[in-house]
Write a structure and sequence with these properties.
By secondary structure, the chain is mainly alpha-helical. It has one domain. Helix content is 68%, strand content 0%. Helix 5 packs antiparallel against helix 6. The two termini are 28 Å apart.
Length: 151
């Protein structure tokens, strides 16, 4: 095994069986956490409806109206479900990463880092995490792997 692919030895050797058991579960945990966050945000858009969501987007400087509101609702709500399940993982994670990139650099960048001051902290973090998911894919515990198909 090369130096880059092997895990470091635990400082406390008795923890090795624990790590061996839980390490394969870490990627699904990340996928589910990201998916859940997106589902909650997308569900808010579902409840508001496309017309009200379009008005909210207009206040933020996005004037594409209902089509953009529908697109973002699908990306966040359906995409969140799919990322959590590991289905079409790369596609939806890339779509969310693009969305977060537009929001980060087009909306929040000028406000500085802190999310408390409408800065880019939160959207940059989620954009980078979803970019990592898009690059890595669903992993071994995903519906993509189960159906043996992945983008």
């Amino acid at each position: 095994m090369t130096e880059l692919t092997r895990e470091p030895k635990p400082l406390l050797p008795f923890l090795e069986p624990f790590y061996a058991a839980v390490i394969p579960l870490t990627w699904p945990l990340i996928r589910i956490a990201v998916g859940w966050n997106l589902i909650v945000h997308g569900w808010g858009k579902v409840l508001r409806g496309p017309a009200a969501q379009a008005i909210n987007l207009t206040h933020d400087g996005f004037h594409q109206g209902v089509p953009l509101a529908v697109l973002l609702t699908i990306v966040e709500f359906v995409g969140g479900i799919c990322i959590a399940l590991g289905l079409l993982t790369r596609f939806f994670a890339a779509a969310v990463a693009i969305e977060m990139g537009v929001i980060t650099f087009g909306l929040y960048w000028g406000n500085g880092f802190s999310w408390l001051h409408r800065g880019y902290e939160y959207t940059l973090l989620w954009g980078l995490v979803t970019l990592a998911i898009a690059l890595r894919g669903g992993g071994p515990y995903s519906l993509d792997r189960k159906i043996d198909r992945e983008l």
